[in-house]
Amino acid sequence: MQQQGRLQIWVTGASGFVGRSLVRAAAAAGHSVVATTFDPPPPSSQNLEWVQADIRRAGELHTLFRERDIDVLIHAAARTNGTTKEIRETNVLGTENVVRTAMTSRVKRIVFLSSGAVYGATDPERAVAEHRRALGEGAYAASKIEGEVLSRRLAAHAGIGLVSCRLGTLYGPGEIETEHRCRLSIPSRIAKLAKRSVPAKVYGLSRRRPYAHVDDAATAILALARAPNLHHDTFNVDGNELLSLAELLAAARTRWPAFRFVTSTSASGVDLALAATDERSRLDTSRLEAAVEPTGWRSMEEGLRSFP
Fold first, then answer.
1. How is the chain classified by DSSP, letter by letter?
2. Are residues 142 and 254 in the same domain?
3. Residue 30 shares a structural domain with residue 135
4. Are residues 229 and 261 in the same domain?
């Protein structure tokens, strides 16, 4: 794909947490964005056309996009919770429908948003690189592994460039619980707890996870979408901080000085808990940083300042 100025970008899942950030960033950069959403869409505006569509319905997508010239598809629509059947309908069948539709719209590059969940259990002491075998368990991780394989195969058959972005734990304002996303990130949960007048009960102060601000991730994803020459088809997209819950709470106290918390010796009945099974490794982003301009991931203190 040759690097261009103004691109026609199709973003699926555009009303979701990551999708909204991608749409804002792409439109602000001057690209023409077609944003599809399962929910009733907001009004369209300059550089941004909202379209209601269900990616599980192949005929509906084909009718909407058969006469469009799309340069880049960023497939952000996903379901993280529900039954195995519900998750697969969106994350596997929906992915196939979207990619096949893109193949008829003269798309030059497809960016598939995957997840660090495909790696499965990891050692927090070691960053995880893309060559690690995908061993993720559970319906969501399995659906993302299958989605990567499926989209890669279809794109290769059509001669379309494809990039899979394995996302780390993203956070930021606007993250809400929905039918498709039931669990908020720890920073977003802390932002809600900080507004309460009573101390929050927490457990697992020493447990560590990496975090990345959603707007920084959107910047990295768009850079991969536009990069003229990529030598790999899979990239980790993650921040460079691995924080314990104690360090995260300290950053929250800087952002909200009135925020108070008390520690518990048990995860039962607390407002916020990190167990050993919740710990994650940082995703190694050396490949990403070598392929595009460094993202400049913001620190947690900077990131929390983006919350109201």
1. ----SS-EEEEESTTSHHHHHHHHHHHHTT-EEEEEESSPPPPPBTTEEEEE--TT-HHHHHHHHTT---SEEEE-----SS-HHHHHIIIIIHHHHHHHHHHTTT-SEEEEEEEGGGG-S--TTSPBPTTS-----SHHHHHHHHHHHHHHHHHHHHT-EEEEEEE--EE-TT----SS-----HHHHHHHHTTSSSPEEEE-TT-EEEEEEHHHHHHHHHHHHH-S--S-SEEEE--SEEEEHHHHHHHHHHH-TT--EEE-SSSTT-SEE--GGG--PPBP-HHHHHHS----PPPHHHHHTT--
2. no
3. yes
4. no
Query: Is 20 within the bounds of a domain?
Result: yes
Q: How far are the Cα atoms of 32, 37, 90 from residue 209, in angstroms, in the given order? A: 36, 30, 27
164 & 232 share domain:
yes
Tell me which of 150-159, 175-184, 186-195, 243-252 is least confident. 175-184
Q: Are residues 292 and 259 in the same domain?
A: no
pLDDT at site 221 = 98
Backbone Cα Rg of the chain: 19
What pLDDT was estimated at residue 4?
60
Render pLDDT for 236-295 as a digit per residue (tens, 0 to 9): 999 988 999 999 999 999 999 999 999 999 999 999 999 998 899 999 999 999 999 888
Instruction: Report the pLDDT value the prediction gives residue 124, as an integer from 0 to 100.
Output: 84
Question: Over the stretch 110-162, which tens digit does the pLDDT of each residue have?
Answer: 999 999 999 998 888 899 999 999 989 899 999 999 999 999 999 999 999 99
Q: Which domain holds residue 253?
A: 186-209+243-278
Q: What percent of the chain has pLDDT over 90?
A: 82
Domain total of the chain: 2
- Is residue 18 in some structural domain? yes
- In this structure, the answer to whether residues 16 and 147 fall within a common structural domain is yes
Report the CATH number that the domain containing residue 18 is assigned in CATH: 3.40.50.720
